[in-house]
Amino acid sequence: MKPQQIADILAQHDAYWDAQRAELREQKAFYMVNYWKERQAVPYGDRSQVLRTELPKGYAVVESYLGSLYAKNPAVSVGPDIRGRGNPEVSQATANRYLLQIREQLEDATRLALVFPCAFLKLAPVDNVDPLKRVSTAAVPPWQVIVDASSSSWSGQRYVGHVYLMPLEEAAARYNKRKDGFQTRSYSSWVDQLSETAAAAGQSTQPVNDTGRWVRVVEFYDLTEDRLLVWSPDFKEGDRYLFEGVQVQVGALEANAAAAAGLPVDTEHVRSGIPYKSASGRPIVPIIPLYFSRDPEVPMRGLALLWRIRDQLREANVMRTYQAQGVRRMARQWMVREGFLSDESASKLAAGLDGEFIEVDAPPGTPLAGELIPVSNPPIPADIGLYGQQVLQDINEAGLLAPFTRGQATGATATENRLLAAYSSSEIGRMARIRDSVISLAASTYNVMLSVLLGDEAEPLTLPNPIGPTMLSAEDLTGDFEYFAVDSGSTPVSDLAKQQALVTQAPLLLQLGVPPDKLREELVRVFGFPEDFNAPAAEPAPAPAAAALPEAATDAAMPEAPGLPPNRSL
Fold it and tell me: 336: helix, coil or strand?
């Protein structure tokens, strides 16, 4: 692929997302609870005088999903390679240590994917003495990732790109170019930038965070030709690449893949191109997609959760603003003859403080009822409140969250709760499965990258028990392993349903002949009890043997227990 082709693809990418900017800004405003600030508009009246009220419903919906999806630490189990390659136990330990480190990034990516159409996790090599920290991970918004929109799946793409800003000094040093060989730009949040149309309408742009000179860089993964190309529209020699590939020492994974394909293996040299390969030799892009909903006609384009409830969120803010305005109109208002009150007295009347003396310009004996008349405003129609309640109900239903998943107390029975759990799990469970696929793919990608970055070196480190201290090598991580997310599809809602069902059915299971030990193991697993609960109970110590006595003497020496027949033991 030539630089001009990348330039054309980037232009199409930018045009698509620029057309979405206003919608994305609104969705972010719903989450950030600054809808009215973003719109710079109110339902009616003078903007400077009209009260604007906003409900934090967008934030609440997103965070409710996050709480359900990440109630537990992410983890995977790793199945062995059918050919016996690598060490699945070590691979599992390294993957789980990595997943524990990136929990925050996973939540950040999920939050982005709920607010915006989709999100991504980007894994990148970094220099670090700790072998398990040689891969960094960051959540990436959708407008920074170029996807092949003509593809129906992530694995079927011809290319993937990552577009981002890099400081000029870093770009010049990394790619061995002169600083004056670049055009530079200011840094600012892309989604917070306003279009020319909005600026012309009088909306003010947010201040630019111009802390230095920046260069726009495109990491372009050409999966058809197996090439990693680095290009910049700000490089004055735009018909040239900044760099081709990421230079890494050829490690065991790549060597094995080359050998399997019948290609020569040269571990003494570095190679360029896409350095990360599966056990079968397929190029791996270190970018993990996270789509919770997709455009059915264009699967590589996502649909945001907040997008599907945008009308209801707008209406909720408008209705609550109307209600707030109505309440304010019902406060003390007065009609006064001009000149009847001084400015100071008018201010005191408006303040309504207890014990204030308000002077009026009237002869003694003048009835104030004719000069100072309270304004009577009509009450807020009851239909307004009912309509507002319906809007909030629509938001909750469109969000597919049962009341108790939002922390709302209910008087529902256990059976009703199970039905509500099933209702919520239909959506949250689907999202949990997507979450699990992201966790599994991130873990496997990390191990592939780590195997390449290790090269032919073995690094000492300590892994969690039962492995403990060991020497980590690329060979340990090399294999066609299966990665399975632990507690696949698990959420607090689904877990509650499982717990209630198990408690209800436990007596029946025992009657049907299920061994108590097996039932106990299931209780420990479902409720998350310590594994020590599965340990067999210790046998009671035998009672000390009594001293032998003559039979007659024994009977005579034993006192009878009250309420028991003679010579009957307890």
Answer: strand
